[in-house]
Write a structure and sequence with these properties.
By secondary structure, this protein is of the alpha/beta class. The protein is 22% helix and 32% strand. It has one domain: 3-Layer(aba) Sandwich (Rossmann fold), CATH 3.40.50. It has three helices and nine strands, in the order βαβαβββαββββ. The protein binds inosinic acid and magnesium ion.
């Protein structure tokens, strides 16, 4: 499969413009204070970098790698922290930066863990959201784009670890 099998859903220029809007909004909301970004690996990294560049208040950044178990019948430990944060978030204005919120499972399990570490404030910013797919109610403050229920790649999002580097959001067209 090569890149010609990708149908563009959101052009690079649209994504860039929307990240600019989000950056401006966040800069306004946090005026006079500082922001600690938690980038959720791997998918969130492209968006987090572009967003951080457009925020005008002082920013620090840390990374977390979590894997969520798909099976909702597992009663505990539904999210596995593969790589934890390097720094404490206590007393900080935390902004979780995600590539996409799909079922909401990952954040549903991660949020209480992070809230337990006593940040001053914690909000979520996601580039994409698929509202139709939501199984867990998550309060998301900043959403780049609401998209229909299609599997997308690019801008950090992968299909079998590929296509993360595409500078736009596309849909993988599978061959019949
Ligand atoms: P959740 O269902 O909200 O927990 O989303 C879990 C993760 O699934 C996201 O962080 C993405 O890494 C991945 N994911 C969900 N939808 C897509 C998609 O359309 N393309 C690529 N990855 C996706
Ligand atoms: Mg992912």
């Amino acid at each position: 499969m090569n890149n010609s099998d990708i149908r563009v859903m959101l052009e690079e220029s649209e994504v860039d413009a929307r990240i600019g809007d989000l950056g401006a909004q966040i800069s306004k909301d946090y005026e006079g204070s500082e922001l600690h970004i938690i980038c959720i690996l791997k998918g969130g990294v492209f968006f987090a970098c572009e967003l951080a560049k457009r925020i005008t208040v002082p920013v620090s950044i840390d990374f977390m790698y979590v894997s969520s178990y798909g099976n909702s019948t597992v009663s505990s430990g539904n999210v596995k922290i593969v790589k934890d944060l390097d720094e404490s978030i206590e007393g900080k204005n935390v902004l979780i930066v995600e590539d996409i919120i799909d079922s909401g499972r990952t954040l549903h399990h991660l949020l209480p863990i992070l809230k337990g570490r006593k940040p001053k404030k914690i909000e979520i910013c996601t580039l994409l959201s698929k509202p139709e797919r939501r199984e867990f109610d998550i309060d998301v403050k900043y959403v780049g784009f609401k998209i229909p229920d299609e599997f997308v790649v690019g801008y950090g999002l992968d299909f079998e670890q590929k296509y993360r580097n595409l500078p736009y959001i596309g849909v993988v067209e599978t061959e019949e």
